[in-house]
Amino acid sequence: MIDTVIVFDQEGRYLRYIQVPSLTYKPRLNRIGKTVHEVLPPETAHLFFEAIQCALQQREQYHNFNTYCDVLPLSQTSIHVEYYLPIQGKRVWFAAYVAPLTENTVLWVARDISDRKRSEQAIELAKQEAETANHHKSQFLARMSHELRTPLNVILGFTQLLQQRRDLDAKQQEYLQIISRSGDHLLTLINDVLDLSKIEEGVTTLSDDRVNLNLLLDWVYQMMHLKASAKGLELTFDLASDLPSTVRLDEGKLRQILINLLGNAIKFTQMGSVSLSVSVEDSAESTAHPNDENLEIGDDSETPSSEATALPCWVQFEISDTGPGIDPAALDSIFEPFVQADAGLKIQQGTGLGLSICQEFVSLMGGRGISLKSQPGEGSTFQFSLPTHAIDPEQESFHSSRQVVGLQSGQPTYRILVVDDREDSRHFLADLLTPLGFQVQEASDGEEAIVLSESWFPDLIWMDMNMPVLDGVSAAKHIKASGQRSPVIIGLTGSNLAEDRMTEFSCDCDDIILKPVRAEAIFEKMAQYLGVRYRYRPVQPNNTVISNPQTSLLLSKEEAIDVLTTMPMEWVEQLHQAALRVSAKQSCELIEQITQTHPSLARTLNRWVEEYRFEDLVSATQGRKM
After folding, report:
1. For the chain, domain boundaries
2. Lowest model confidence (mean pLDDT) among 204-208, 217-221, 543-547, 566-570
3. Whole-model pTM above 0.70?
């Protein structure tokens, strides 16, 4: 509805002023003959004058339009402006179209848009409040990330130290493995919330890892097997015979996808089984896949020569269960954040984030999105495929899986400074490094770190980023700017949300590691930046190869005993005697004899020997000895 019609001349003078009854306000001044600068507030008058001039300039380009009817309907010469006027103590907003009438006059047609403007302002205010709340949420999650990861770092760190002891019996080793797996699972739950925030902020990144699929899947199986067994469920992993043992992809994200999907399957299945099938897609199907561009080999400068001939392939994962199934009406929303199906709501477990994060991760990794087939009462099947490169396992370094026991000779004495306000975190690193031959000193805040850096001259500093008195960011900046021999500084942080802060850290830190920190990562970084060379505990190589469904699993102790009852008694007796003597060498030699005929048993027994579970080996072979 038109509220006001005005005719202005080129100087902004009111020539005609028509006000329709819809606008109850009546101006007190007679505006005819006056200019906008005489009638309106300065800023508004300037806007009016500029709009009038623009409309007249437009007319020069469209001079054939010289009647009101030509201009108003779909005029390309009109100017649109929005403004407000203080009327009766309130701001009244108008939207106006300004179009030329003659060479020196314009038509100003305005309508009251105050209601619309109030709605827009309310929406903008709500948007700003939401952005502020989201910012506060991100800050809170970043802070909580650090608070949660720091004690978890200590738990997992000291668990690793205890696992390196050789005087623990089999039951103690088993307890430590349970602690380690449970800690890893807790970390996964923490990451569910943090990863959703990173996805929302668009800062999730991919890592390009060399992944031993057999070891990764074995790790997942061991973690999930406890949960499945506790519910009386059968858990099976079916690995294709042509599945590459070593590939390149983001190991952490794949692990989290599998844990989430298998965890859900076990959680909602009350009886029956849960299975994971892993296979390589047919070459024709893989070639036709629309995301094949994700499989291009990187630049030679970034790709090791041993991997230059790695072939691209697609690996398919399928998780099936005999659970309650999902109502078809819920299939479209099941992957949305915080959405749970009826089964999830009844059980009241989980965050409702797992499937959403899994879907985002599969997409981020360039894979085929997770598909779901399910009917109520018939179970569910989740399937997804990921692009990767198969790598020759002989080219893989296995040092990360070997226990470091010392430093090779002929190296300098490395000075390592550990800076953390948490005493237990400092002790973990000190207890890890000191026995190996490193000189270690500790500092509880950034100021102490600066003093020790200037007096003790460390070769490398492990610097926690969040500390009182002086944080790691400021301390690193001061140390790097001191002008003295600059040590390597590696930041430790429990926050993985603020990517902009990570960039800030990187300016003064040589590297950043996210807590909880693994011993392998500590050793790897010191080798990378200091050239440290390590001595490793000798291990008997395990030649068992996972090539079919029967070899994809580690047997339980009861299952191993059942298989042992079918083995030749002479061989079992020899293995029993080797276990009594705690002879790892002889035990491995005997186990090697059955790797082809009984690969699952061989794999299980090799694991027992590696973990010094000779008590289990003795008891398992006790019943078969002559």
Report:
1. 4-112, 210-394, 400-536, 549-622
2. 543-547
3. no
